[in-house]
Amino acid sequence: MYQRKQYHTLFSRMQEKRRFIQVIMGPRQVGKSTLMKQVVNALDIPFVFYPADAVPATQLSWISDCWNAARAKMRVEGLKELILVIDEIQKITGWSEVVKKEWDSDTFYDVNLKVILLGSSRVMLDKGLSDSLEGRFERIILSHWSFAEMRDAFGFTLDQFVYYGAYPGAAELIGDEDRWRDYITGSIVDATINKDILVNEKIAKPALLRQTFELSAAYSGKELSLTKMIGQLQDAGNTTTVAGYLNLLSQAGLVCALNKYAVDLARKKNSVPKHQVYNNALKNIYCEKSFADAVQDRSLWGRLFESAIGAHIMSNAYAGDYKVYYWRTNPGTEVDYVLEKKGKVIAIEVKSNSDPGNEGLVEFKEQYKPYLALVVGDGGMKAEDFLSMNPVDLFK
User: Fold this and answer.
1) What are the residue ranges spanned by the domains of the chain?
2) Which strand ranges, in their side-by-side order, compose the sheet holding 47-51?
């Protein structure tokens, strides 16, 4: 079975003496549970696994029950160490306080119980970790799969990666595009909205949230103002509501709205957003053309290609701790993606055809003096190479 690079990180940490809780974070269907199972099955350490999916959100005692069952197993079987794994821990309201209490108790009484927590809601996890568990945990962040990973694990070509995206669970379904779309819609979109957002947030208009996702995903790689979005939504709210929903969808790892790059913070916030999915499969489930037909439509394929580059950039942004924008002064004078990290700025222009024009990149370089200006695609870095690397490495 294919092993992602995070496998070695978790394997190594679990072999160390008990020191930190290991928190595996990432959006749905990127392989968090698979990674955990690969590691615990390879280690010579017993483990117990408890999923929180069906547990009532208010049942805090469930966490302590899991912990006590693990301790009892250690005592009864005379184990020197044991791994406790809890999946979707963020679904339990107030989980971090209980985890802190149980972890600190084991530390005080020298109980060698090592802990792995998994979760798909980045915001809920981050809040609990920062509120109660500072100094007690390490993150292992799983992003969406890169082109190199999909190629090596499933034999994907670059064109297949651009169209079908990077969900490993869907890789073997691409021969039946209706089945592939049903999987992405049900196992990822519906599950994320219904289980990760609606369960944890008070949403006044769930139908509007879903429509916001669908429209934003369909427009991935394009600019679309919130006002124009409202005009296309059936259950329209106001721009503040739609902006809030876009923020929740971004936190859930589905789709985001990029601001225009500017030195002035207010100008960034007030710009027309450019929409961007975190995985190109989320855009292409709404594509009206099949893979074979889309490849032949060069205009359409150029838009799908740009969205795929943007998805790769965004899926690594959280772990890489960089911000992403776009830049434009007028049509034809634009930069597709602008990355910013600790004062360094990187400008990326995507080229999917033989058009030699890079006026936007030239003007951006003159105005902002970026750390790096890069063309991805024709006339620049090969798409295969860019989609196989972590964009944070460009800041080195």
Assistant:
1) 6-141, 147-395
2) 47-51, 82-87, 113-119, 21-25, 137-141
